[in-house]
Design goal:
The complex is a heterodimer of chains A (110) and B (906). With 110 residues, chain A is α+β, with helices and mostly antiparallel strands. Chain A has 4 helices and 3 strands; from the N terminus they run αβααββα. The chains are: A alpha+beta (110), B alpha+beta (906).
Chain lengths: 110, 906
């Protein structure tokens, strides 16, 4: 049923995590599911990549974390975007736009 | 802002490690539970839901480890962890740790101590203003690097040279200072006032010399050293302005110089108890360009190099030669050298040679520790496999081994520095003057840098190979296979063998060096001296009113010449000494063999043309009768000068064999006549050669003796320069005794009665004099011998360790061999053969290395080629013997393996 999950391009994971948090705070599993949803199942982020990225981004100051209750009343660690995080998202979005445009150009050239 | 966040994260990661870890644990677990719940909601059974969740998560520990690696400051934490773990591991293997740490400590300690010596003596600047710009200017073609020149040459350089901010003149001399406790003879350097201002040493009390005090006829003044001031003047702060008698002349004390003032450094250590007096030019100094008593020292202008200064000196020398064609010899010129470099030149090659030898010892120590670590890592295969299975990467495992090497190195360095401190205390116990600037040897902060560098090197050399070997191994395989297949042909076996062979090669080089030095010392101890040292004592005598060598003058008033001190003082006291019971014979000689009394003069052979370029020159000494018989020196031709050659008898001299050969060649030297300078020196009469004495060593045992002239002491004209140089300043006596006799006290009594004005000093037997002369070779031998001993011990330990490990890991294989019919003998032979191959390979490489490096030591050798056959053979045989001895125990252990037991063990 799922399309073949694609390996994430270097650097796109950060972009996707930032994007998934724009709508509001999420815990780790929520981020993973949200990415799957917004990419229509193209990207499935495994915990082995997700958690290191989250911790790194938190140390960069792009996201912050706090403990809260999940929808099933379970304690979970939530993440939300910070101000530098929003700025970073803009930067990354622009960069991605340039890359995808460039790749598109390259592929169209014969 | 981001920086602030990062710093906060770093601090949190380092100091709230537990909380951060707990957070991570909870986060991963809540994630896992949420996954399980999701699966349950999707309709899976409980077990299946949990299993699927775990699969999706991947290994819990692996995820956590990957998060940790993302953390800021993670490496600090993991390094600390590694070190703590390494310490725990090492504590579990105290024997291994002790051997490894001790090995490194010896290597590091010896290197640190020697570096401290080299740093203090060669590298650290002298304690003077702009010490790096201090330059010594010597005449070209001088007898040694510190040759002296004349006031006139100094004046011309001073007035013309632009490369120097200041120039000064100094002379080595002695002085007798009158104190409350009597006369003391001390070092009495003469200096121009400019020398003191150039050095920039602030006086402890008073002032240094003024310009006026450095002029002809200036006030008689003196500067005391702190050492003499404290010892002989009780540190009296009111000393400045008082008059002290120096050489019979009252001189006003103008200041006291602190201990740091050690100039001229080449006179150390005596100069720390010295008096300095200003050079006040005498008519002779202002007249004679050949009056060479002085050393020139200058301070280079900033940003002026030695080359530039040398070029300027060359130009000045040319002008001097042009203006004074009659007074200078062809090849006249000056050579500028950095003062400190000149000072340390004799010991520099020795130090660097020893440092090289020690570097070899350190390498051997590293190889040994590397071998121990490899052997240990064999036994830890399973541990590494388990850690790999639990999420440790190869890099992490390598880091672990390197951390162990680092911990060993740090421990080794700590103990090594303590050992170095002990060694330096030993260095300070050496006889004074063994090493120039010896009293300045201390541990300096640079030592810490050096030890840290050494520790890094030892860490890398000792643990890198083992770490690479661990990383190369198929780790999971280690989990289920106990290591059965480690043989001589496995990678580790080969590396370990290679390391041992390297150790053997390096110690071969050290042993050959030691062997060569040993043979050199033996040769030196048996080198011909030209005299018999047995039962001969020498001592010096200085008159209270000794004026020193510097102020010598020729008296024109020859009719009114005073009576010589030789017949007034020395002849009576010699007569008295000869009658002391137990004294066989006694003689006076200004410059006995191996003394520092080194007076040279040009001379002229009557009837031979004056050849300015090759003017004959010889060491000159005054001598009394009985000299040759007292020292047992062989007379080759004619007669020795004796006490019948009085002032009124025809003037005669004896010469040594070298002089006869060098200047008379095939001619018969007897009855030839020589002139020692003529009008310039006041020795106007021609002297007839009446005898040829066999050569005696003069400045160095094993050296080539200089030509020498012996003048009867009563015939030295009191009006000549030679009178002051040879008789009135400092003379030596040699006394041959019949049996055991307390020579010093007997002589003091005799002199007190017959010549109370003479201060006696420097009592030594001739054997002591000889031993002191070859002390540096002896010390070199002891040091390299110690290093080589260390190296051999390490080789034995290394070889034994490798073979013993080999046997224990090959138990299984040996068991099979024996079960299949191998005899115990053949098993033992197999191990011995393995040891022999390693030794032979190392020995071969070591001999080649030693042959290649032979030229480096050739300057330390005496009557020996650096490729001395017997030394090489001896080293090869002894290393083979020692190596086989180290292999016997493992071989016996291999032979005693019970096949059934060995096979069942698995």
């Amino acid at each position: 049923m799922d399309p073949e999950p694609t390996t994430l391009l270097q650097g796109t994971l950060d972009l996707l995590i930032l994007k998934s948090l724009v709508a509001g705070e999420l815990h780790g599993l929520g981020i993973s599911r949200r990415i799957k949803q917004i990419t229509s199942g193209t990207f499935v982020v495994k915990p082995g990549s997700l958690f290191p990225a989250l911790h790194r981004m938190e140390e960069e100051g792009w996201i912050s974390s706090f403990w809260g209750d999940s929808e099933n009343n379970r304690r979970a660690k939530y993440y939300r975007l910070t101000k530098p995080g929003r700025k970073q998202l803009e930067v990354e979005t622009k960069r991605w736009g340039r890359i995808s445009w460039a790749i598109g150009q390259a592929l169209e050239t014969t | 802002m981001p920086l602030f966040t990062k710093v906060r994260s770093l601090l949190r990661n380092l100091f709230s490690w537990r909380r951060v870890e707990k957070d991570l644990y909870e986060e991963v677990h809540s994630h896992l539970e949420m996954l399980t719940e999701e699966n349950l909601r999707a309709g899976m059974g409980r077990n299946e839901a949990e299993r699927a969740a775990r699969i999706e998560l991947g290994g819990i520990e692996q995820v956590k480890e990957e998060v940790r690696e993302q953390r800021i400051g993670n490496w600090i934490h993991s390094v600390l962890c590694d070190c703590r773990f390494a310490l725990r591991q090492l504590r579990k293997a105290p024997g291994f740790t002790a051997i490894a740490v001790l090995t490194l400590a010896l290597g590091i300690g010896a290197n640190a101590a020697l570096f401290a010596v080299v740093e203090s003596v060669v590298l650290r600047a002298l304690p003077y203003t702009h010490a790096d710009r201090l330059t010594f200017i010597a005449p070209k073609g001088g007898r040694d690097q510190f040759s002296s020149t004349s006031w006139l040459n100094y004046r011309d350089i001073r007035d013309q040279a632009r490369s120097f901010t200041q120039l000064g003149l100094y002379a080595h001399d002695v002085a007798v200072v009158e104190t409350e406790e009597g006369a003391v003879s001390v070092s009495g350097p003469r200096v121009t006032p400019s020398v003191l201002s150039m050095l920039g040493v602030q006086p402890l009390l008073g002032r240094t010399f003024t310009e006026a005090e450095g002029q002809s006829g200036g006030a008689p003044v003196v500067l005391l050293s702190e050492g003499l001031w404290r010892e002989s003047f009780h540190g009296d702060r009111g000393i400045v302005g008082q008059v002290v008698k120096v050489g019979g002349i009252g001189r006003t004390v103008v200041g006291v110089m602190p201990y740091a003032m050690g100039f001229p450094e080449e006179d150390a250590p005596d100069v720390h108890k010295a008096v300095w007096m200003p050079i006040q030019p005498t008519p002779e100094m202002l007249k004679e360009r050949g009056y060479s008593m002085f050393s020139i020292v200058g301070q280079l202008q900033e940003r002026v190099g030695l080359k530039q200064a040398q070029a300027e000196l060359d130009a000045i020398a040319q002008r001097i030669a042009h203006d004074n064609a009659d007074a200078v010899t062809p090849g006249f010129g000056f050579r500028a050298t950095a003062y400190q470099e000149l000072l340390t030149a004799p010991v520099r090659p020795v130090f660097f040679g020893l440092l090289g030898a020690l570097a070899l010892v350190l390498l051997i120590a590293c190889a040994n520790v590397a071998n121990l670590l490899i052997a240990r890592s064999l036994g830890r295969q399973q541990e590494f496999a388990v850690r790999a299975a639990l999420g440790a990467g190869r890099a992490r495992l390598m880091r672990q081994l390197i951390a162990e090497g680092a911990v060993l190195s740090v421990l080794g360095s700590g103990i090594g520095v303590l050992l170095a401190k002990l060694a330096l205390e030993g260095v300070h116990k050496l006889p004074e003057g063994t090493i120039p600037r010896g009293d300045s040897i201390t541990m300096h902060w640079t030592l810490i840098v050096v030890v840290a560098a050494i520790a890094t090197v030892t860490t890398v050399f000792s643990s890198l190979l083992p770490a690479i070997l661990v990383a190369r191994t198929d780790l999971p395989a280690g989990l289920h296979s106990a290591t059965k297949s480690i043989g001589a042909h496995s990678v580790r076996g080969r590396v370990a063998g290679f390391l041992v062979a390297t150790e053997v090669a390096l110690s071969t080089v050290l042993l050959i060096g030691t062997g060569l030095l040993f043979r050199t010392l033996w040769n030196l101890e048996h080198a011909p001296l030209g005299f018999a040292a047995t039962r001969v004592t020498t001592f010096s005598a200085m008159s209270e009113d000794a004026t020193g060598f510097t102020g010598m003058a020729v008296s024109e008033d020859r009719l009114d010449a005073p009576t010589s001190v030789a017949s007034l003082v020395y002849a009576p006291v010699l007569e008295r000494v000869r009658h002391v019971p137990g004294v066989e014979s006694a003689a006076l000689i200004t410059a006995p063999p191996l003394s520092d009394m080194d007076l040279h003069s040009d001379f002229e052979i009557v009837g031979q043309g004056k050849d300015l370029a090759n003017r004959p020159s010889a060491r000159v000494t005054a001598v009394s009768g009985d000299y040759a018989s007292t020292l047992g020196a062989p007379l080759l031709r004619g007669r020795m000068v004796n006490d019948d050659d009085t002032a009124s008898a025809p003037p005669v001299v004896a010469v040594n064999e070298s002089l006869a050969k060098k200047y008379f060649g095939n001619m018969d030297p007897l009855q030839q006549q020589i002139i020692l300078g003529g009008k310039e020196t006041g020795m106007e009469e021609a002297l007839t050669v009446v005898g040829v004495l066999g050569d005696q060593v003069d400045s160095k045992v094993g050296g080539i003796p200089d030509p020498m002239i012996f003048i009867p002491y009563q015939q030295v004209p009191t009006t000549s320069l030679f009178y002051q140089a040879l008789l009135t300043t400092m003379v030596n006596f040699v006394v041959k005794t019949r049996g055991d006799l307390a020579v010093a006290s007997a002589m003091r009594t005799a002199f007190h009665e017959a010549a109370p004005s003479l201060a006696l000093d420097n009592f030594k037997t001739m054997q002591q004099v000889v031993d002191e002369n070859i002390f540096s070779q002896r010390m070199g031998l002891y040091l390299t011998g110690t290093f080589a001993g260390l190296a051999v011990l390490m080789v034995v330990a290394g070889l034994y360790g490798v073979l013993a490990q080999l046997v224990s890991y090959r138990r299984h294989e040996i068991g099979i061999r024996m079960a299949l019919g191998a005899t115990r003998q053949s098993v033992a032979q197999m191990i011995l053969r393995h040891g022999a191959v390693l030794i032979a390979a190392g020995l071969g490489a070591g001999i080649l290395l030693a042959l290649a490096m032979g030229q480096l030591v050739s300057s330390f050798l005496y009557a020996l080629r650096p490729t001395d056959f017997w030394t090489y053979i001896g080293v090869a045989i002894s290393l083979l013997a020692v190596g086989l001895l180290a292999s016997v125990l493992p071989a016996r252990r291999a032979a005693s393996i019970e096949p059934m037991q060995a096979l069942r063990e698995e």
